[in-house]
Write a structure and sequence with these properties.
Elements lengths: L2 E10 L4 E10 L2 E5 L7 E5 L4 E4 L1 E6 L1 E2 L2 E2 L5 H12 L3 E6 L6 H16 L6 E2 L2 E4 L21 H11 L3 E6 L6 H11 L2 E4 L6 H10 L3 E2 L10 E3 L2 E3 L2 H6 L5 E5 L7 H11 L4 E4 L12 E4 L6 E6 L2 E3 L13 H11 L4 H15 L17 E4 L5 E6 L2 E2 L3
Parallel strand pairs: 1-4, 1-5, 6-9, 9-10, 11-12, 12-13, 13-14, 14-17, 17-18
Antiparallel strand pairs: 1-2, 2-3, 5-22, 7-8, 15-16, 19-20, 20-21, 22-23, 23-24
Helix pairs in contact: 1-2, 3-4, 8-9
């Protein structure tokens, strides 16, 4: 690519918004902020809207009628395109609890999709959600495949992945969690607390072992509860007391109410929170019925009130959000300042996934992953590494 100049917009930086400003990129990298359009650059008019860093979704299962558990490279590309149309320029494909052979197949599909020309959001690396979960907080995860980790199983999967796994979730109250944490640390994989009924004491112990993140905080994470007639605090309280533990929040406006998101924001701050979609295959579609998980073996769901639910409406069964909706929820609906919402959508997840030195913010030297939004915060144009995404 040549030079790209985006102007007449409000440029959202990590610490402020430059009104009526511009951005210049060349050969996929941002080169300057707030400069006039050079005569040899392609001009793009932001029309008074917002120029933001591309969104980075570190917890997403599907979209565009595909799920990563479908086990094909095409499903990876289909999801990457569906979410890119809504401003996501990088994502972590997320798996569900499943038999090991299917997990190995999904890992192979990741590498196959990664080896092909990227069309849509960049595939950063895999996020494994399961199978080491508490049945008491299973959510939509299948109980039949939940189990206890062993060193042999962990190393076999990690060896097969060849570095593809960036993060692995587990319930810290299960046996062998110190082993799990030790193996994750030795392989450079983030250990995250998830689908857990742990007490605060068990959560604190896991943080001391090396767990450093909490998956979809508030959802399938414990708060104060009784154990053998004695009240204990839970994961939520323990996490609020640990400045070194980060969290993620589902930003669809259904899973987390305004007051709970504000409480997390007040305590953790934008540097400690990632906004995520946790989206299933119906994201980015107008479907009213769908499937949670693999197409052939997943759970039928209905889409009602902008969220996937079990057919009897007894429980939510996944988000259908895209990251632009997360922005509108947190900023427009809940009133959190745009600079901090942008950080939770881009820079903080980039930092946690190890790519914050090259993406996640609009700064010279970083890749030109850019979203142009209208004044009403609707996606207008998306650029991935300086190339316009055309859908």
């Amino acid at each position: 690519m040549g030079k790209l100049w985006i102007g007449n917009g409000n440029v959202v930086l990590p610490d402020r918004i430059l009104a009526g400003s511009s951005l210049l990129a060349e050969d996929r990298y941002i080169t300057a902020i707030g400069v006039p359009c050079p005569p040899d650059a392609e001009p793009v008019d932001a029309r008074g809207g917002y120029i933001l860093p591309g969104f980075i979704d570190i917890h997403v299962h599907g979209g565009g009628r595909a799920d990563f558990m479908d086990g094909t490279a095409e499903s990876f590309r289909q999801i990457a395109r569906a979410h890119c149309a809504h401003g996501t320029t990088a994502l972590c494909p997320t798996t569900m609890t499943c038999p090991d052979p299917l997990l190995m197949q999904v890992i192979d599909c990741f590498w196959e999709a990664k080896s092909q020309p990227q069309d849509g959001a960049e595939l950063l690396g895999l996020h494994l959600e399961g199978p080491f979960f508490s049945a008491a907080s299973k959510g939509a995860q299948p109980v039949s495949e939940q189990r206890i980790p062993t060193e042999e199983v962990l190393n076999r999967i990690l060896d097969h992945a060849r570095g593809a796994i960036l993060r692995w979730d587990a319930a810290p109250e299960l046996p062998n969690m110190e082993l799990f944490s030790r193996v994750m640390e030795s392989r450079g994989v983030m250990a995250s607390v998830a689908h857990t009924n742990a007490t605060a004491e068990e959560a604190m112990q896991s943080y001391n072992w090396g767990f450093s993140h909490v998956t979809h905080f508030y959802n399938a994470t414990s708060t104060f509860h009784k154990v053998n007639g004695i009240v204990h605090s839970g994961v939520i309280e323990a996490t609020y007391l640990r400045d070194d533990v980060t969290i993620e929040l589902i930003g669809d406006g259904r899973h987390i109410p305004k007051e709970s998101m504000w409480l997390a924001y007040r305590i953790k701050g934008a540097d400690g929170i990632c906004l995520i979609t946790d989206a299933m295959r119906a994201a980015g579609t107008d479907d009213t019925q769908s499937i949670l998980g693999a197409r052939d073996t997943g759970v039928p769901v209905v889409i009602k009130d902008e969220v996937a639910q079990l057919p009897d409406l007894s429980s939510y069964a996944g988000s259908i959000a895209t990251m632009d909706r997360c922005l509108r929820t947190a900023h427009v609906k809940y009133g959190i300042p745009l600079v901090d919402v942008s950080k939770m959508l881009s820079l903080t997840p980039a930092r946690l996934m190890g790519c914050g030195n090259r993406t996640g913010s609009l700064e010279p030297g970083k890749e030109a992953d850019i979203v142009i939004m209208t004044a009403d915060f609707l996606v207008d144009q998306v650029f991935v590494k300086g190339h316009r995404f055309d859908g």
